[in-house]
Amino acid sequence: MSDADDARRRTEVAVRAASAGSEIAADAFRSGIAVETKDGKTDVVTQADRDAQTTVVEVLRERFPEDPIVGEEADALKQVPDTGPAWIVDPIDGTNNYVDGVRVFGTAVAAVVDGEPAAGASVFPALDDAYRVGPDGAFRNDDPLSVSDRTDPETATVCPTFWWDYDERDQYAAATRAIVTRFADMRRFGCAQLELAMVAAGALDGAVTNLVMNPWDSVAGVHMIREAGGTVTDLAGDRWRHDSTGLVASNGEIHDELLAVAREAAAVE
Predict the structure, then answer these.
(1) Which residues of 77-108 are buried (b: 16+ CB within 10 A; e: fewer)?
(2) Contacting residues for 129 by C-beta, under 8 A, at least 6 apart
(3) Residue 84 zone, left/alpha/beta (φ > 0; ψ -120 to 50; rest)
(4) For residues 76 and 86, is the Cβ–Cβ distance under 8 A?
(5) Cβ-count burial of 204 within 10 angstroms (0-12 exposed, 13-18 middle, 19+ buried)?
(6) Residue closest to 90 by CA, chosen among 215, 243, 199, 189
(7) Which residues lie across from 89 on neighbouring strands?
(8) Sequence spans of domains, the chain
(9) Which residues are 59's β-sheet partners?
(10) Overall fold of domain 153-266
(11) Residue 269: its pLDDT value, please?
(12) Which terminus of the chain faces fewer neighbouring Cβ atoms within 10 Å, N or C?
């Protein structure tokens, strides 16, 4: 089997797994589900997160029983293997939105081979949007994706993505200040995979953080942006990987300005 055929097969399975997980999340949405905290006051989890991850894993195991699975919940691996195939799962990205009854949440599944993205899917059931990416390109609801063509930062809209914890709020403040002094406007949705997908779709011109992002919050969306013609680097301006420090994702045209934002945030002591 060629690499492209294998990636197509993984794309199909990623779509099925993400769709199945998102159905579990949608069924429990606004149902008064109990909420627990993990590592901090805003790091929340619900039984729906666990049930959705179980469902996603079951779908993946049907076709790829031996592949490692990296995931946010339960006993899944927390680091992406450097060699061989693996899957990366976020059962509910945007859990804070989810528990507040906000429709901005979804299930993301990515496939990697030797640490490099090969396929992915992100399904946002309350928005009726399903994104997928593979060797044939990136799509939303079967429509091909393309990043925006804005070249003037003063017409661009940028999202400070991921989450700066309470002891990192000076960096968050620096990032937002740098954005609003360089770009036309700023958006934040509280769901990193959707924010990255929106860059791929041209709805946002860029998304940025100076932090190390979790692979389940990032890999599927990064792959979409690249396949849609965008650019994703780390703080040094090098090609982003799942273990990079900083994530700077753009349409490519405003990348240098966005990179400066990440570096300003990182420079705060």
Answers:
(1) eeebeeeebbbbbbbbbbbbbbbeebbbbbbb
(2) 106, 123, 140, 141, 197
(3) left
(4) no
(5) buried
(6) 215
(7) 71, 109
(8) 3-144, 153-266
(9) none
(10) D-Maltodextrin-Binding Protein; domain 2 (3.40.190)
(11) 67
(12) C
CA separation for the pair 127, 25 (Å, rounded): 13
- Paired tokens of 1: 């089997």
Assess contact for 254 and 150: CB atoms under 8 A.
yes
Give the pLDDT confidence score for residue 163 in this predicted structure: 83
Asked: is 3-144 a CATH 3.30.540.10 domain? The reply is yes
Question: Within the chain, where are the H helices?
Answer: 3-28, 47-63, 95-99, 169-182, 192-201, 219-227, 255-266
pLDDT per residue as tens digits for the range 70-81? 987 666 677 899
CB atoms within 10 A of CB 256: 12
* C-alpha torsion sign, points 241, 154, 176, 123: negative
Size of the chain in residues? 269
The Cα 168–Cα 172 span in angstroms is 7
Distance CA 29, CA 7 (A): 32
Task: Take residue 53 and report the two structure tokens written for it.
Answer: 């991850």
